[in-house]
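Margin note from the TA: students keep mixing up input and output lines. Inputs are the sequences; the output is the structure of the whole complex. Example:
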Amino acid sequence: MSNTATLIIDGKEITLPITTGSEGERALDIARLRDETGLVTLDSGYKNTGATISAITFLDGEQGVLRYRGYPIEQLAERSTFVETSYLLIYGKLPSPAELKTFSHNLTYHSMIHEDMRHFFDGFPSAGHPMAMLASMVGSLSAYYPDSLDPNHDHDMHIARLLSKVRTIAAFGYKRRIGQPIVYPKNSLSYCANFLRMMFSVPAEPYEIDPEVVKALNILLILHADHEQNCSTSTVRLVGSSNASLYASISAGICALWGPLHGGANQAVMGMLREIQASGGNYKQFMADVKDKKNNTRLMGFGHRVYKNYDPRAKILKQMADSLLPRLGVDDPLLDIARNLEEIALRDPYFVERKLYPNVDFYSGLIYKAIKIPEDMFTVMFALGRMPGWIAQWREMMLDPKKVIGRPRQIYTGETARDYVSIEKRG
Ligand code: CMC
């Protein structure tokens, strides 16, 4: 296979290098294109643009394969913990027992937020979306850790702080929203158990930790932990490329995740399932609406920019929903609606032709609901899970000696030069 490609532009030949990744993916390296020809490439939505080289996550959308640092997602979901997977993503290898102990210790002892920050929560309207609180609070951490503003600072302590504090912030935000007293973290608990206690403990009744729920939460967070160059991760890289702080970069990523076409889809799926329930299970009408482009309705939790096969994360989550809900004694009619909807969609030529399959958001909400996470916290849960991936991608970029600020080009289609007309002369 050739490692160069020849382009002919205006009769002039230019040879461009082809870069090959470790899984055989090939890319045309167009870095010299503009200098040599005056042309830029145009690729709306970056559908065909490799924005970086990266050694973190491999995704084969045709085959439905997802690996973190080479390890299959199925093995990590079954055998790892969220903390161990976070270390793997960020530092590139599975930790030794001593490394895991130190990393866990740092997460445990950096879980508190500055008491002044606690008062920020009082300033938010109680009906405000928790993603707004999360993004603001994470951005605010820059003000409490000013050394993070120096791009050459020691990253590791900020990484541990962020990974730990984000869970405290998420739980405090929830407590503020429902008007309950906040619950401080407890050092003797594991990452996920600690979060569940901060969410659900009340003075009248301490939260009883169910290992089954802790395990489920670990799996959910692992499945969301990284997904290479998606909308939010690319945002983190783009903001970080200007040497904005880790906290500022991740705060921007949280905002990008919020939208219903990205991480916000898990909340939107529940609304969709409930609508179908309210219609008395009128799947036919719903599918007709989805296929009618004038309607602007999508089957939420279906389709993916990269997966043209069953999303491996959705496969794990579907099995998990099937086994976990009965074990927790949850009988949710929305799960039956989701199963029916999936079956109908996978037989429908509209979905078959476009290779639209369930994605990670289709079943995750049903599991979050079963473990009592409220719906408007679903996207916050996605953000908690995605945290190590964003951090790993930010760190990889910051340590790259060839790092440059992200700055795309455009093709201008507006007015050409014209003279200013004073207001009296304008009709
Ligand atoms: N329901 C109905 N039609 C769809 C859907 C859907 N969920 N997804 C794609 N299509 C159609 C789309 O209308 C288009 O049809 P046509 O060729 O006739 O114009 C075709 O399939 C290709 O769609 P696209 O919008 O060009 O694909 P994309 O790669 O730009 O968008 C997507 C990917 C995820 C934004 C899209 O599939 C979607 O909106 N899905 C629903 C929202 C959702 O579940 N998002 C979560 C994604 S996974 C979590 C994450 O990582 O963010």
